[in-house]
Amino acid sequence: MSKHLKEYNSDKLKLYGEITKKAIELSKIQNKYKGLNKEIIICRNIIFNLKKEKSEIINKSNEEIKKFLIEKSQIDKLKEENERISNLYDKQTKELINVSVEKEILASQNSKLKLDILQAQKTMLFKSMQASRAFTYQRN
Length: 140
Hints:
Layout: H1 2-68, H2 72-139
């Protein structure tokens, strides 16, 4: 009886340790997931502002060309600014894609960890039931 109880307690402690470890990993992933969500929101806001800024610059440059026939150097400056904003927009878009991919990976890991925890809980319940049966059997 004592041997089975010790084995049960040992198995139970091991499973508890595994569940605790998985729960800590899950918590870390959830925190990272929250951080990535914040980064996605920031990136989306930056992209929105860059699109708006790009549109404003393009509209302004077109108006100036129509109204005043801007000198060549001024046109070049506006084109450079437009290119800079386009490059920033492209960079932010790539970063958003990377963050979205990372988010999907974390979501997948999160699901796997949840399944691992459920499996560990099922195993612990099964071991508990076995120990209870063994204890009842020994008493009889």
